[in-house]
């Protein structure tokens, strides 16, 4: 009898601990930037979130392949102490869809991002509903892609001050074609809560595509009138969504 009570008590204690971990407050934010830009573009949003009490880390993935970028994200996730909200912008949405399986991840936030289902690639999704901009060019070796610097401000960051947009154009991170053509495996959003920001003035990803992907995933959707660089032009609004997601992910 004592043994049965002891076993029951252990099982109950384990359940309570598991529930507490699941309901723990989410204070860690890991951000995966998109292609053609780097993590420093998230500085304004990061500073806002830190002032609100969050611990923010930005992944500087190489964009050499989807597998490389998922591995880079997992290395950062392994450094987190406690539940973490995983945020992805643009191509970063492809990355977090698989990296989100990490046990550290409590929820996913897609910011003007691709939100693929199993077997889908960035190129396949982008061609399903073409956007209005993106003057994409190939490097001479045919392995990497970039935006024509002259077209970058209008295509990527039309609502940023011109000097900021021009700097982004000069500092853009070239993306391997292999990363854009890779197909994802089982999406983490099937099993975890997700939120999505649709940038309604986006010329890099068709806003209708952003909306359709988010609805398909059952994500909580917020629409913001902004360019593809919504995280930089509307950092307060983006931080608001991330903060709300962190609170709801911990419930």
UniProtKB/TrEMBL annotation:
InterPro entries: AB_hydrolase_1, AB_hydrolase_fold, Sec-Metab_Biosynth_Hydrolase. It comes from the Bacteria. Keywords: Plasmid, Signal. Residues 29-241 form the AB hydrolase-1 domain. The keyword Hydrolase does not apply. The keyword Signal applies. Residues 1-20 form the signal peptide. SUPFAM superfamilies: alpha/beta-Hydrolases (SSF53474). This is Polyneuridine-aldehyde esterase.
């Amino acid at each position: 009898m004592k043994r049965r009570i002891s076993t029951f008590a252990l099982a109950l204690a384990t359940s309570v601990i598991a529930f507490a971990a699941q309901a723990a407050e989410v204070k860690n934010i890991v951000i995966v930037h998109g292609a053609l830009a780097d993590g420093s573009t998230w500085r304004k949003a990061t500073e806002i979130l830190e002032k609100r009490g969050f611990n923010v880390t930005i992944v500087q993935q190489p964009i050499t392949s989807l597998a490389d970028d998922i591995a880079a994200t997992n290395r950062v996730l392994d450094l987190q102490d406690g539940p973490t909200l995983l945020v992805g912008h643009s191509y970063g949405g492809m990355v977090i869809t698989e990296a989100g399986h990490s046990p550290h991840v409590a929820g996913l936030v897609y910011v003007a991002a691709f939100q693929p289902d199993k077997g889908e690639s960035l190129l396949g999704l982008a061609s399903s509903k073409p956007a209005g901009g993106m003057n994409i060019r190939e490097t001479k070796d045919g392995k990497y892609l970039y935006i024509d610097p002259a077209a970058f401000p209008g295509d990527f960051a039309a609502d940023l001050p011109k000097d900021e947009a021009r700097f982004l154009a000069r500092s853009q991170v070239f993306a391997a074609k292999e990363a854009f053509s890779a197909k994802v495996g089982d999406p983490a959003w099937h099993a975890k809560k997700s939120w999505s920001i649709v940038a309604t003035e986006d010329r890099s990803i068709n806003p209708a595509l952003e909306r359709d992907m988010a609805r398909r995933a059952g994500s909580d959707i917020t629409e913001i009138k902004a360019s593809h660089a919504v995280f930089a032009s509307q950092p307060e609004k983006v931080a608001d969504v991330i903060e709300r997601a962190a609170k709801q992910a911990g419930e």
